[in-house]
Amino acid sequence: GDSVTQMEGPVTLSEEAFLTINCTYTATGYPSLFWYVQYPGEGLQLLLKATKADDKGSNKGFEATYRKETTSFHLEKGSVQVSDSAVYFCALSDRRGSTLTFGKGTMLLVSP
Amino acid sequence: NAGVTQTPKFRILKIGQSMTLQCTQDMNHNYMYWYRQDPGMGLKLIYYSVGAGITDKGEVPNGYNVSRSTTEDFPLRLELAAPSQTSVYFCASRQAGGSTDTQYFGPGTRLTVL
Predict the structure, then answer these.
(1) What span, in angstroms and rounded, lies between the C-alpha atoms of B17 and A17?
(2) Is A84 helix (H, G, I), strand (E, B) or coil?
(3) A91: number of Cβ within 10 Å
(4) I want to staple A75 with a disulfide (CB 3.0 to 4.6 A). Which of A21, A28, B35, B39 is the partner?
(5) How far apart are CA A3 and CA A27, in angstroms?
(6) pLDDT in tens, A31-74
(7) Could you give the 3-state DSSP secondary structure of residue B83?
(8) Got the DSSP string for A35-71?
(9) Least CB-CB distance to A102: which of B43, B100, B107?
């Protein structure tokens, strides 16, 4: 079945550091790929998405590129802020688009 | 728009008790979902619905029941609460249209079974 693997956290960075959170997937066909973010005490919010190979999703300074050849969708940001501290989830949609499969999440902690 | 709302925010149950977690969305979305989130385990799909009157099991449906009598509401029922059901429960919705559509999440219900 479909699966998503994310790097384990927590990832601890200083403000203005470069961020990479790795995400790889296993799926049949060509799923859409998503990054969701969960701030403390809240539900998940869509951060960005990509729907086909080589697409780049971007939002709020975060980027991720859909790499079919490496089955990856790594999240990057050039300069993190304290307000980026949250848990980040990589996810893929099934072939019908009905459901999402989530990774386990990666906690990011940014210190001033 | 309120989006996706869930009640209650917190609940403590005793083993064997039953309860219903409420979920309502005001976006006229066809699809609705129930997930549970356990520490370090991501989100697991419990049940989902593609429209009123239609429900399907997800990855971890045992111990839960759902119904979808209206487009807006998708309650989750726990009949005989067990400690293994201690978790944070999230409801989500999305508009039908394909695999690229965004799911919108509620704020969650934190349930403890003692």
Answers:
(1) 49
(2) helix
(3) 27
(4) A21
(5) 7
(6) 899 999 999 888 899 999 998 899 999 999 999 999 999 999 99
(7) helix
(8) EEEE-TTS-EEEEEEE-STT-EEEETTEEEE-BTTTT
(9) B43
Which residues lie closer than 8 Å to B52 by C-beta, 6 or more apart? B68, B69, B70, B71
Q: Are B109 and B12 in contact (CB under 8 A)?
A: no
Chain-chain contact of A45 with B50 (C-beta, under 8 angstroms): no
Pairing type for strands B109-113 and B31-37 reads unpaired
Q: How much is the pLDDT for B99?
A: 57
Collapsed DSSP state (helix, strand, coil) of residue B51: strand
d(CA B40, CA B15): 24
Please report how many Cα atoms fall inside a 13 Å half-sphere around the Cα of residue B31, on the Cβ side.
21
- Reading the block at residue B1, the tokens are 């728009």
Phi-psi region of B2 (alpha: psi -120 to 50; beta: other; left: phi over 0): alpha
Nearest chain A residue to B38, by CA: A104
Tally the residues of chain B: 114
Residue B41 has pLDDT above 90, yes or no: no
| Burial class of residue A103 in the structure, from the number of CB atoms within 10 Å of its CB (0-12 exposed, 13-18 middle, 19+ buried) | buried
Q: Do A94 and B99 touch (CB under 8 A)?
A: yes
Closest of A12, A7, A5, A8 to residue A84, by C-alpha: A12
> Is A46 in contact with B102 (Cβ distance < 8 A)?
yes
Residue for token pair 């064997």: B16
Q: How confident is the model at residue A24 (pLDDT cuts 50, 70, 90)?
A: very high
